[in-house]
Protein backbone atom coordinates (compact mmCIF):
# COMPACT_ATOMS: atom_id res chain seq x y z
CA UNK A 1 0.00 0.00 0.00
CA UNK A 2 2.88 2.39 0.77
CA UNK A 3 4.30 1.84 -2.74
CA UNK A 4 0.89 2.54 -4.31
CA UNK A 5 0.56 5.77 -2.30
CA UNK A 6 4.07 6.85 -3.28
CA UNK A 7 3.19 6.43 -6.96
CA UNK A 8 -0.18 8.14 -6.46
CA UNK A 9 1.20 11.23 -4.70
CA UNK A 10 4.17 11.64 -7.02
CA UNK A 11 2.07 11.13 -10.16
CA UNK A 12 -0.51 13.61 -8.90
CA UNK A 13 2.08 16.22 -7.94
CA UNK A 14 3.65 16.10 -11.43
CA UNK A 15 0.38 16.95 -13.22
CA UNK A 16 -1.06 19.49 -10.74
CA UNK A 17 0.72 22.44 -12.34
CA UNK A 18 -1.47 24.28 -14.83
CA UNK A 19 0.05 23.53 -18.21
CA UNK A 20 -1.27 23.54 -21.76
CA UNK A 21 -2.98 20.15 -21.42
CA UNK A 22 -4.70 21.07 -18.15
CA UNK A 23 -5.87 24.41 -19.57
CA UNK A 24 -7.42 22.57 -22.52
CA UNK A 25 -9.22 20.10 -20.22
CA UNK A 26 -10.48 23.02 -18.11
CA UNK A 27 -11.85 24.83 -21.17
CA UNK A 28 -13.60 21.70 -22.41
CA UNK A 29 -15.08 21.21 -18.95
CA UNK A 30 -16.35 24.80 -18.88
CA UNK A 31 -17.92 24.37 -22.32
CA UNK A 32 -19.23 20.90 -21.33
CA UNK A 33 -17.92 19.71 -24.67
CA UNK A 34 -16.85 16.06 -24.99
CA UNK A 35 -15.60 16.18 -21.38
CA UNK A 36 -15.58 12.42 -20.76
CA UNK A 37 -13.60 11.55 -23.88
CA UNK A 38 -11.10 14.40 -23.26
CA UNK A 39 -10.48 13.25 -19.67
CA UNK A 40 -10.24 9.63 -20.81
CA UNK A 41 -7.73 10.41 -23.59
CA UNK A 42 -5.52 12.39 -21.19
CA UNK A 43 -5.65 9.74 -18.45
CA UNK A 44 -5.08 6.81 -20.84
CA UNK A 45 -2.17 8.64 -22.49
CA UNK A 46 -0.60 9.12 -19.06
CA UNK A 47 -1.24 5.44 -18.26
CA UNK A 48 0.58 4.37 -21.45
CA UNK A 49 3.53 6.70 -20.82
CA UNK A 50 3.84 5.73 -17.14
CA UNK A 51 3.77 2.05 -18.12
CA UNK A 52 6.53 2.69 -20.68
CA UNK A 53 8.58 4.45 -18.01
CA UNK A 54 8.21 1.68 -15.47
CA UNK A 55 9.03 -0.88 -18.19
CA UNK A 56 12.36 0.89 -18.77
CA UNK A 57 11.70 3.03 -21.85
CA UNK A 58 13.12 6.09 -20.09
CA UNK A 59 16.58 4.75 -20.87
CA UNK A 60 15.70 4.71 -24.59
CA UNK A 61 14.69 8.38 -24.54
CA UNK A 62 17.94 9.26 -22.75
CA UNK A 63 19.87 7.30 -25.38
CA UNK A 64 18.07 8.99 -28.31
CA UNK A 65 17.71 12.68 -27.37
CA UNK A 66 16.41 13.44 -30.89
CA UNK A 67 13.00 12.08 -29.74
CA UNK A 68 12.77 14.82 -27.13
CA UNK A 69 14.12 17.45 -29.58
CA UNK A 70 11.53 16.67 -32.28
CA UNK A 71 8.75 16.65 -29.68
CA UNK A 72 9.95 19.99 -28.29
CA UNK A 73 9.86 21.91 -31.60
CA UNK A 74 6.66 20.26 -32.85
CA UNK A 75 5.03 21.06 -29.50
CA UNK A 76 6.24 24.67 -29.58
CA UNK A 77 4.83 25.16 -33.10
CA UNK A 78 1.49 23.69 -32.06
CA UNK A 79 1.35 25.93 -28.96
CA UNK A 80 2.14 29.07 -31.00
CA UNK A 81 -0.74 28.32 -33.39
CA UNK A 82 -3.12 27.58 -30.51
CA UNK A 83 -2.00 30.73 -28.65
CA UNK A 84 -2.67 32.86 -31.74
CA UNK A 85 -6.15 31.37 -32.18
CA UNK A 86 -6.97 31.78 -28.49
CA UNK A 87 -5.85 35.43 -28.34
CA UNK A 88 -7.65 36.14 -31.63
CA UNK A 89 -10.80 34.57 -30.18
CA UNK A 90 -10.48 36.75 -27.06
CA UNK A 91 -10.28 39.91 -29.21
CA UNK A 92 -12.78 39.07 -31.96
CA UNK A 93 -15.42 36.82 -30.37
CA UNK A 94 -17.76 37.45 -27.49
CA UNK A 95 -18.31 34.06 -25.89
CA UNK A 96 -20.74 33.26 -23.13
CA UNK A 97 -21.66 29.88 -21.70
CA UNK A 98 -25.26 28.95 -22.20
CA UNK A 99 -26.88 25.59 -21.40
CA UNK A 100 -28.98 25.83 -24.57
CA UNK A 101 -25.99 26.24 -26.91
CA UNK A 102 -24.93 22.97 -28.49
CA UNK A 103 -21.34 21.93 -29.09
CA UNK A 104 -19.91 23.02 -32.44
CA UNK A 105 -16.59 21.15 -32.40
CA UNK A 106 -16.68 17.53 -33.55
CA UNK A 107 -15.41 14.81 -31.24
CA UNK A 108 -12.69 13.98 -33.80
CA UNK A 109 -11.36 17.56 -33.76
CA UNK A 110 -11.44 17.74 -29.95
CA UNK A 111 -9.68 14.37 -29.55
CA UNK A 112 -7.04 15.40 -32.12
CA UNK A 113 -6.39 18.62 -30.16
CA UNK A 114 -6.22 16.66 -26.91
CA UNK A 115 -3.75 14.17 -28.41
CA UNK A 116 -1.58 17.04 -29.67
CA UNK A 117 -1.52 18.73 -26.24
CA UNK A 118 -0.54 15.42 -24.67
CA UNK A 119 1.87 13.76 -27.10
CA UNK A 120 3.61 16.88 -28.45
CA UNK A 121 4.57 18.01 -24.97
CA UNK A 122 8.20 17.04 -24.24
CA UNK A 123 7.63 17.61 -20.50
CA UNK A 124 5.18 14.71 -20.43
CA UNK A 125 7.96 12.34 -21.54
CA UNK A 126 10.38 13.71 -18.96
CA UNK A 127 7.80 13.54 -16.15
CA UNK A 128 6.10 10.23 -16.88
CA UNK A 129 8.60 8.12 -18.81
CA UNK A 130 11.96 9.31 -17.50
CA UNK A 131 11.25 10.63 -13.98
CA UNK A 132 8.50 8.23 -12.84
CA UNK A 133 10.25 5.38 -14.65
CA UNK A 134 13.55 5.96 -12.86
CA UNK A 135 11.91 6.49 -9.45
CA UNK A 136 9.86 3.28 -9.85
CA UNK A 137 13.12 1.29 -9.93
CA UNK A 138 13.57 2.16 -6.24
CA UNK A 139 10.44 0.13 -5.45
CA UNK A 140 11.56 -3.22 -6.90
CA UNK A 141 9.93 -5.71 -7.00
CA UNK A 142 6.74 -3.64 -6.48
CA UNK A 143 7.05 -1.32 -9.51
CA UNK A 144 3.63 -2.46 -10.73
CA UNK A 145 2.00 -1.06 -7.57
CA UNK A 146 3.91 2.21 -8.02
CA UNK A 147 2.71 2.47 -11.64
CA UNK A 148 -0.92 1.72 -10.67
CA UNK A 149 -0.72 4.45 -8.01
CA UNK A 150 0.62 7.02 -10.50
CA UNK A 151 -1.99 6.03 -13.10
CA UNK A 152 -4.78 6.30 -10.48
CA UNK A 153 -3.60 9.81 -9.63
CA UNK A 154 -3.79 10.77 -13.29
CA UNK A 155 -7.34 9.43 -13.74
CA UNK A 156 -8.58 11.16 -10.57
CA UNK A 157 -6.95 14.46 -11.52
CA UNK A 158 -8.21 14.72 -15.11
CA UNK A 159 -11.77 13.66 -14.36
CA UNK A 160 -11.89 16.02 -11.34
CA UNK A 161 -10.59 18.89 -13.49
CA UNK A 162 -12.90 18.20 -16.42
CA UNK A 163 -16.10 17.74 -14.43
CA UNK A 164 -15.14 20.09 -11.58
CA UNK A 165 -14.95 22.96 -14.09
CA UNK A 166 -18.77 23.04 -14.00
CA UNK A 167 -18.57 24.74 -10.61
CA UNK A 168 -17.08 27.75 -12.44
CA UNK A 169 -19.75 27.70 -15.18
CA UNK A 170 -21.92 30.52 -13.71
CA UNK A 171 -18.93 32.88 -13.84
CA UNK A 172 -18.35 32.07 -17.51
CA UNK A 173 -21.92 32.88 -18.50
CA UNK A 174 -20.55 36.43 -18.68
CA UNK A 175 -18.75 37.18 -21.99
CA UNK A 176 -16.03 39.20 -20.23
CA UNK A 177 -14.96 36.21 -18.07
CA UNK A 178 -14.62 34.02 -21.16
CA UNK A 179 -12.61 36.74 -22.96
CA UNK A 180 -10.21 36.94 -20.00
CA UNK A 181 -9.85 33.12 -19.95
CA UNK A 182 -9.15 32.96 -23.71
CA UNK A 183 -6.54 35.72 -23.39
CA UNK A 184 -4.84 34.17 -20.33
CA UNK A 185 -4.78 30.72 -21.97
CA UNK A 186 -3.33 32.25 -25.15
CA UNK A 187 -0.55 34.06 -23.26
CA UNK A 188 0.17 30.94 -21.21
CA UNK A 189 0.43 28.76 -24.35
CA UNK A 190 2.71 31.36 -25.94
CA UNK A 191 5.01 31.45 -22.90
CA UNK A 192 5.16 27.63 -22.70
CA UNK A 193 5.97 27.50 -26.43
CA UNK A 194 8.80 30.02 -25.96
CA UNK A 195 10.13 28.09 -22.93
CA UNK A 196 10.21 24.89 -25.01
CA UNK A 197 12.49 26.56 -27.58
CA UNK A 198 14.69 28.35 -25.04
Secondary structure topology:
Blueprint: H1 2-15, H2 20-31, H3 35-54, H4 58-63, H5 66-92, H6 107-119, H7 122-136, H8 143-164, H9 175-197
Helix pairs in contact: 1-7, 1-8, 2-3, 2-8, 3-6, 3-7, 3-8, 5-9
Give the strand content.
Answer: under 5%
- Helicity range of the residues? over 70%
Series of H and E elements? HHHHHHHHH
Low-confidence stretches: none
> What is the rounded distance between the termini?
41 Å
Radius of gyration: 18 Å
Overall form: globular
Features:
mainly alpha; 77% helix; 198 residues
Report on the architecture of this protein.
- With 198 residues, the protein is mainly alpha-helical.
- It has one domain (2-11, 20-197).
- Helix content is 77%, strand content 0%.
- The chain has helices at 2-15, 20-31, 35-54, 58-63, 66-92, 107-119, 122-136, 143-164, 175-197.
- Helix 1 crosses helix 8.
- The protein is globular, with a radius of gyration of 18 Å.
- The model has no long low-confidence stretch (mean pLDDT 82).
